[in-house]
Amino acid sequence: MPLRARIWRRRALIVGVRVARLVSTGLSRFFPAIRYLARSLHRRWRRSLQFRTVLTTLLLSVTSFAVVGAYLSNQIANNLFQERLTQAESETRYNVKQVQDTFDGAQVTDQSSVITLVYDTLTAVEGRGDEIQRRYVFEAMPQQTKPRNRWVESRASDQLTVSVIPPDLRKAVQQSGKDQYWASTVIPVGTEDRPGIAVGNKVDFNGTVYELYLIYDLNTAQQTLDEIQSVLWAGGAVLVLMIGAIAWYVTRNVVSPVSHAALVSEKLAAGQLQERMVVKGEDEVARLGASFNHMAASLQEQITQLATLSQMQQRFVSDVSHELRTPLTTVRMAAEVLYDARHDFDPINKRSAELLYNQVERFQSLLSDLLEISRFDAGVAMLDAEPEDILQVIAHVIEGAAPVAAEYGSEITLRAPAEGIVVEMDARRIDRILRNLILNAVEHGEGRPVNITVAANQTAVGIAVRDHGIGMTPAEAARVFDRFWRADPARARTTGGSGLGLSIAMEDTKLHNGWLQAWGKKGTGANFRLTVPLRQGEEIDRSPVQLEPEDILLPEVQAGRNMLVMDPGPAPVPQAPESVRVPDDAQGDGDAAAAPRSGVTAVPKETP
User: Fold this and answer.
1) SS3 for 298-355, per residue?
2) CA distance 396 to 411
3) CA quadruple 432, 434, 435, 436: dihedral, nearest 10
4) CA 421, 427, 430, 432 torsion-angle sign
5) 3-class DSSP string for 574-589
6) Which of 77, 86, 84, 81 is nearest to 180 (CA)?
7) What's the burial of 480, exposed, middle or buried (CB within 10 Å: 0-12/13-18/19+)?
8) Mean pLDDT of the chain
9) How far apart are CA 507 and CA 482, in angstroms?
10) 410 vs 438, 549, 601, CA distance in Å?
11) For the residues of 504-565, what is the DSSP string, one character each?
12) Could you give the CA distance from residue 132 to residue 135 in angstroms, rounded to a whole number?
C-alpha cells in the first residue's frame, strides 16, 4: 500500500506539471495574440476613416439599442407582472371567501369528516385541470390555544411547505385582521424552480385561525417575457448589422473618392504627372474630382514648363562653361605674362596688369564652380570615398586659410579630440566644403576669432565653424545655401565672387549622405555645422556638435589646456596667388602691405 500510494502521488505530480506547462504555453501564446490584435485594431483605427466611421456607428447603435431594449424589456416585465398580480389578488379574494363560507357552513364533528372537508375544500381551490392554476399552503397560526377538536394543523400542495412563504409575508398576515398581503417567491415544480406570487389571508375553522396562502405560478409570464426579449435581441442584432452595412456602404461611397484622390496625389508627387481621378456623376464628389484633375493638369503643364526651362538653363550653363574654357585659358596665359612683366611697366599699366590677373583668377574660379554645378545637375558627380583621418584634412584647410586669416586679422581656434577620427569620405570634397566654410567665416568675421569644433559619436563626425561677425537672421540662414544668393548684395566681395561655394558644399555633403546646416544671429555671428557618417551607408541619428553654439572662450583665457599654436607669421607678398584675391577697390602700386600676425590655434579636447 505505501508503494502504491507513492506511485499515485508521482503520477499526480507528473500530470500536474504537464497541465501547468500546457496552461503556461497557452497563456504565452494567448497574450501576444491579444496584443497583436489590439495593435492591428489601433493601427486600422488611425489609418482608415471608413473603419473608424463604421465601428463608431456600430458602437453607438449597440449602445442605443441596449438602452432602448432594456427600457422596453423592463416595461413589458412590469406590465406582465402587474397584470398577473391584479388577477391573483382578485382570484384570491374570491377563493378565500369560498373557503371561509364552506368552513362556516360545515356540520362536521369527527376527525375524518374534518380532514376530508379541509382536503376537498383546498383541492377545489387549486382548480386542478390540465394544469394546476394555483397552489396553497394552509397553516395554523402559532401561539394560539389548541381547541379540543382541532384535527388539522397544516396542509400544502405537492412539494410545498410553509418555508416557501417569505417570513415578511407571514409576519404581515399574522399581525393583520382580514387584510390581504402578497409577496414574490420561488416555488419548486418538478426539478426546477419557478417564479411565483404568494397571496396570504386568514380563515377560521372550528375556533382555530389558519393562514391560507395561495401561490400563483408566473412561469407562463416569464416564458412570454423571455420570448419577447429573444425577439428584441434578435431584431436588435439584425438591425445593428443592417446599420453597419448601410454605414459601410455610405462611407465607402464617400471615402473611396478621397482614397483615390490620395493615391493619385501620391503618384503625382512621385512624378507620374499623367495620373488623373476617375469622375462619375455630377455631385459634390464628382465636382471635387473634376477640380482635382484640372489642378493636376495645370500643375503638370507648369512643372513641364519649369523642367524644360531648367534643362535649358542647365544645358546653357554647361555649354557656356565648356565653351569658355579654351578662350579663358588663353586670356589667363596672357594675363600671367603681363603680370610677370609688370615691374617693367609704368604705374598705370602695372596696376592694370595686376587687376587683369586677379579678375581672370576670379573668372577662372567662377567657371570652375559653374562646371561643378553642371556636373551635379547632370547627375554625374561621383563619390570617391576612402578611409582617412578627417583631422588631417581640417589641418590642411586651416593651413591654407592662414594667409587669408592673417589679412583679416582673425585667429582660428581648433577644438578637436587628441586622437584621430577615421572617416570614409572623399577627402577632396570634404576639403572643399571646409575651405568654403572657413573662408566665409573669416570674410564675415570682421577680424574676430573663428572657432572650429570637431566631435564624433558612434555613427557620425560633426564639424562646427563659428564666427563672431555680422551674423544673419533665421530667414537668411534658410536661404544661405541657394545659388547666387547674398544676404547683402551691396557688400563687396573680397575672398570669393561666384556665390556658388555654399551650394557646391551642400551638394558635396549630400553625396556623403550628411547634413550641412546653418545658424545665425544678427550682431552675434554665425555657425555652420557639417555632419557626415563615419561609414558610408549608415544613417545619422544625431550630430555630435550643437547647431546653436554655446559661448566659446578664447584661447588666451583657456587656462590649463594643451594648445598647439600654428603661426604663419607676416603674410607674404602674393606671387601668382591662388586663394588670396586683391579687393576690387585696392589702391597703391600693387605691393601688398604687411598684414597683422594671425594665430591658428589647435586646441585638442581633453580626454578623461
Assistant:
1) HHHHHHHHHHHHHHHHHHHHHHHHHHHHHHHHHHHHHHHHHHHCHHHCCHHHHHHHHH
2) 16
3) 90
4) positive
5) CCCCCCCCCCCCCCCC
6) 86
7) buried
8) 80
9) 11
10) 11, 19, 11
11) HHHHHHHHTT-EEEEEEETTTEEEEEEEEESSTTPPP---SS-SSPPP---GGG-TT---EE
12) 7
Residue with grid cell 453597419, as numbered in its chain: 244
418 within 8 A of 491, measured Cβ to Cβ: no
Buried b (16+ CB within 10 A) or exposed e, 347-362: eeebbebbbbbbbbbb
Question: How confident is the model at residue 129, as a pLDDT?
Answer: 62
Q: Rg of the Cα trace of the chain?
A: 52
Residue 396, C-alpha cell as written in the block: 590642411
pTM above 0.85, yes or no: no
Neighbours of 279 (CB within 10 A): 16
Q: What is the largest CA-CA distance in the chain?
A: 170
Q: Cα–chain-centroid distance for residue 305?
A: 39
d(CA 352, CA 334): 13
According to the model, what pLDDT value does residue 599 have?
Answer: 41
- Round to whole Å and give the CA distance between 162 and 114: 21
- The Cα–Cα gap between 284 and 601 comes to 70
CA 231 – CA 74 distance, rounded (Å):
15
Q: Cell numbers 383546498 correspond to what residue?
A: 122
Contacts (Cβ under 8 Å, ≥6 apart) of 289: 257, 261, 277, 278, 279
* CA 101 vs CA 95, 117, 128, 560: distances in Å: 10, 12, 20, 124
pLDDT along the chain (608 residues), means of 10: 73 83 77 82 83 89 90 90 91 90 84 86 79 84 76 83 90 87 88 89 88 90 88 90 90 83 85 83 82 87 82 71 76 84 86 84 73 69 85 90 88 88 89 89 88 91 91 83 67 54 85 89 89 88 85 41 36 35 34 35 42
Do 453 and 466 contact (CB within 8 A), yes or no?
yes
In angstroms, the CA 111 to CA 140 distance is 16
Residue among 601, 595, 572 at smallest CA distance from 408: 595
Condensed to tens digits (0 to 9), the pLDDT of residues 469-483 reads: 888 888 888 888 887
pLDDT digits (tens, 9 = 90+) for 230-254: 998 898 899 999 999 998 888 888 8
Q: How many CB atoms lie within 10 A of CB 487?
A: 17
Edge-to-edge, what's the strand order for the sheet holding 154-156?
154-156, 134-140, 208-217, 192-205, 181-189
- Residue 47 CB partners (closer than 8 Å, separation 6+): none
Cα atoms found within 13 Å of the Cα of residue 428, Cβ hemisphere only? 5
Q: Is 276 helix (H, G, I), strand (E, B) or coil?
A: coil
Return the percentage of the chain with pLDDT > 90, whole number: 14
